[in-house]
Specification:
By secondary structure, this protein is α/β, with parallel strands linked by helices. It contains 10 helices and 8 strands. It has one domain: Leucine Aminopeptidase, subunit E, domain 1 (3-Layer(aba) Sandwich), CATH 3.40.220.
Length: about 325
């Protein structure tokens, strides 16, 4: 694999020299409560060139673990990588009023905003895609502190009947937001994979399908390169919120990419019963297009395209 950039940072120095730019008062509240300026430890940022897909559909026996709810960030982080549902501009909305998955992860891991500012100051591309041709260039951040957890779920008893996810975060009174922030004492540490999902409408094209698989395959292979133990990837319905991606297809393609890459375990957060049904349908879809382990992978991708999966609508977040 080809690593385009590698930076080893001291987190305390990073936040001092490149403080985050937080335009949202709600984000400033989160940063203050979790003492983001006190972030410590050594962390590593890497950016990777798109890796060519394997010629054949030889798949690893990846353990698949569908779970209800959202990321829970277990205390053990060695070899465990959580997907950041990124924009092509790395962490670009971290300081804004929005609180979708990318921005939530940045708020809970406050040094991520400083990473973006440092890369921009170094005139490095803070991108998860190549700005010339749109090829995926996933960014990995290893050993970053998670200093708080924000409860985004609806909670009428606490004055948050619609929850805090997406645009509801900025529309909620600051004091009600304060009650949803749990400060981690001590902070835990996470390994993150920032990879951008495509956008589209109508029926998925063969090109879009290959782009998704290449993005996830590159990112998952990079996580394996950066780990000294078998890798577990934690993900969910990547690209299926604001981008309107198809849950069944994005499940199918992530499982395919994980098995092609050799991921030991894929922990897939499905939200609820409807999400579990989407996951199961995606798994059945993958089983239906596989034939033999030595079959050319392009033929598998052709059969996936022939299933005519369609884009959905944005959820507005």
């Amino acid at each position: 694999m080809r690593c385009l950039l590698r930076r080893d940072y001291d987190a305390a120095t990073l936040v001092r020299e490149h403080p985050p730019k937080l335009s949202s008062p709600h984000k400033r509240l989160v940063y203050a409560m979790c003492s983001g300026a006190s972030t410590t430890g050594a962390l590593t940022v890497t950016r990777w060139a798109a890796e060519p897909l394997p010629a054949t559909a030889e798949l690893a026996p990846t353990e698949l673990v569908p779970l209800p709810g959202h990321f829970d960030y277990a205390d053990v982080h060695e070899g465990v990588w959580h997907v950041n549902f990124a924009d092509p501009e790395l962490f670009f909305a971290y300081g804004s009023s929005l609180l979708a998955q990318d921005e939530l992860q940045c708020a809970e891991h406050p040094v991520l905003g400083s990473i973006r500012e440092a890369l921009l100051a170094e005139h490095q591309p803070a991108m998860t895609e190549n700005d010339r041709d749109g090829a995926p260039t996933p960014v990995l951040v290893a050993n970053v502190e998670r200093r708080c957890a924000i409860d985004t779920a609806p909670n009428a008893a606490c004055g948050r009947p619609q929850g805090l996810y997406g645009n509801r975060f900025a529309a909620t009174d600051l004091e009600l937001v304060r009650g949803a922030i749990h400060v981690m004492r001590p902070p835990t540490r996470s390994n993150l994979i920032a990879m951008a999902a495509p956008t589209g409408a109508g029926t998925y094209t063969r090109t879009q399908i290959e782009h998704v698989v290449t993005t996830a395959y590159t990112a998952f292979r990079a996580a394996i390169e950066e780990s000294n133990v078998p890798v577990e990837v934690c993900t969910g319905f990547w690209g299926c919120g604001a981008f309107g991606g198809n849950r069944e297809l994005m499940t199918l393609l992530q499982i395919l990419a994980a098995r092609l890459a050799g991921v030991a375990r894929l922990r897939f957060y499905v939200f609820d019963d409807a999400g579990r049904a989407n996951f199961d349908a995606g798994l059945r879809g993958l089983d239906g297009v596989l034939r033999t382990s030595d079959e050319p992978l392009p033929q598998v991708l052709d059969r996936i395209a022939d299933l005519d999966y369609r884009w959905g609508a944005s959820d507005g977040n």
